[in-house]
Specification:
Order of helices and strands: HHHHHHHHHHHHHHHHHH
Helix content: over 70%
Strand content: under 5%
Shape: globular
Number of helices: 18
Structural class: mainly alpha
Length: 483
Amino acid sequence: MTQTEAAQRQDVALGQGKLGTLRVAFMIIAASAPLTVLAGGTPTNYAVSQLLGVPLSFLTFGVLVGLFAVGYGRMSAHIRNSGAFYEYVSQGLGVRQGIAAAVLALVAYNLMQIGLYGIFGFSASAVIASLTGISLPWWVTGGAAWLVVAILGVSNIDLSAKVLGVLVTLEFIVVLGVSVYGFATAPEGISMEPLSPSQFMAPGIGVLLVFTMAAFMGFESGAIYSEECRDPEKTISRATYIAVFTVALFYTGSAWAMAVGIGPSHVIEQASQYGPDLVFVWIAQASPVFANIIQVLFVTSILAALLAFHNAAARYFFALGRSGVLPKRFADTTSSGAPIVGSLTQTVMSLLVVAVFALAGKGSDLGELYPVLTLFTWFTNAASFGIVFLMAVTSVAIMRWSVKYHPEFGLFPKIIAPLLAAIGLAVVTALILANFDIMIGDTGPASLVWIMPGVVLGSGLVGLVWGEYLLRKQRVAPQKLVV
């Protein structure tokens, strides 16, 4: 290979062979943010659904995403592309549909990442005020996180993986400690009621599943790192399985432990009263020091998710630049293989949106909760809708690709698993739309119920039209089949 060829190759290749199974699993788990789910998602689920069946909902959704992972893992063994949804849908349903999926995924990942700055800024400022007495605006602490993510985003992916590995390990230690404390105290005994089907299959199950789904966002991101793995044929599927079943079991166990530790007869009432502060109030009764540690790690958990979703968005920019869907500059990388233009673009977009919300929030009636009830709630719920919708479409693409080109696959991975995943995810997508008003509350105009999902679906339609234009102008070639 000549120096010129090597330079050209460097511009269109991510860092090769840098990630093993555990590091990819940590990247996936970091996006799901286990401690954030325990402290924020689980109490919210108890409060909003008014059902004790939260642990069973985590287990049920774990099975659903596990079914999705069967075909997803098979396809990742054959296809290495940082724009996973883009390539998988292109191979299964066609290039136009693939470009539509890519644009929708790009919008969804950016919405998710930017929305997290709202809850990070609020939570970090609250922790600093609690520990030091210093009061900082949410956008100052959010800006500090933005700077950390910006630096790590253009660094070697191995560095990001190491940072996320440490943060995720600390999260699991805390979640395990809280769970042990819950079962050890158990004021009403070790109750099996939260695992009872009657507490799950009841009015309110739609809301229950919708909020449970949000806890698994990010698990599909493993395939995004396929080009940077040492052994992509095995790494992605293994990492995805490890991540899915680990978080499903941890979510189920920690939600059960919370109900048992507080008491099944009181957990819904207290979750409604304290919301995301429930875990800190509960643990502080036994150890204020440990409660403070959990609060700090709760903030770092959100930081880990910020970095994970930043990496995902940057790699979608890269994949679209390399394929010609976006300008070729987006395919530029640093010497270490980081997608520099995509990373910087995501960083600038985050800064602009956070700045707009910081200005709009001055003097708001929502007070300190403004960034949580607006930026975080609006953006992340819209993103969750988009990602679940994409997963349903991808399940269909995986099934069609498997049936058409891989008759050697068994019936379960080829048809049964992706079909059940597609049906289940389509149902959840419909539930999200039906309950979107509950998910975003009444913190904005009523039109947001249609605007936010409309932005997500509209981006897919724009991608479909753009894909048709690119094909007609021969700006992109018909997809080369990968089997």
